[in-house]
Amino acid sequence: MRKNTDCTTAFKNSLVHPFKPLTPHTNLEVPTASSWQHLHCYLFSLLENLADIEQSPKYHPEGNALYHSLQVFQCALQDTDNPILWAAALLHDVGKAIDYPDHARIGAAELEGLIHPYACWLIEHHLDLLTSPRRTRNKWRSSQKLGDLGRLRKWDLKGRETDVEVMSVEQALETLRSHHEIISI
To answer: Apex CA 155: angle with CA 152 and CA 161, to 5°?
Structure first.
């Protein structure tokens, strides 16, 4: 169940489009301290809610969805220098705290307009290679999308260890902040 924090409420209430979607190759500016503070607080809240989401030990022996998400993020950090993929890896399961069965779509919808649109697309489709592998491979054959979905799927599977030390949510968000191009400003 989703926690209703003051941070989440304040952030949602303050949205009058303080962030605009990014287009590729845009000259980007660092988010203002105020806009980053609100976004940071909101993302922190979404991620912290995952600590209460216990997953099936059969598929997720690592336990809660936050520990899993931080492992997936760390796998992405080790495997690519693309901060958009880092964001998708960290945030791919945030929807589980809202609607577990439909978490991919719900999570992407929660983040739409706040992070790069491609990261949202990856989050929404991160289960496609699991649920419809043939259709997904045929649809995105020879495309960057298929390659990136494959990477995200690989990290998702690797992020199921029971005894891995992970960084904190704060450290993960600070890593994203230092690569502001994943933030819709």
So the answer is: 155
Structure tokens at 175: 């890593």
SS3 content of the chain, % helix, strand, coil (to 5): 60, 5, 35
Q: Which of 82, 41, 49, 79 is nearest to 66 (CA)?
A: 49
**Structure letter (DSSP) for residue 96:** G
- Contact (Cβ atoms closer than 8 angstroms) between residue 42 and residue 11: yes
- Cα 61 from Cα 43, distance rounded (Å): 25
The separation between the first and the last C-alpha atoms of the chain, rounded to the nearest angstrom, is: 29
pLDDT tens figures, 52-107: 876 666 666 567 889 999 999 999 999 999 999 999 999 999 998 887 788 999 99
Q: Pick from 107, 101, 106: which is nearest to 89 by CA?
A: 107
Distance CA 40, CA 121 (A): 20
Checking phi first, is residue 142 left (phi over 0); if not, alpha (psi -120 to 50) or beta? left
Count other C-beta atoms under 10 Å from residue 146's C-beta.
Answer: 17
Helix (H, G, I), strand (E, B) or coil at 64: strand
The answer to whether the CB of 10 falls within 8 A of the CB of 41 is yes
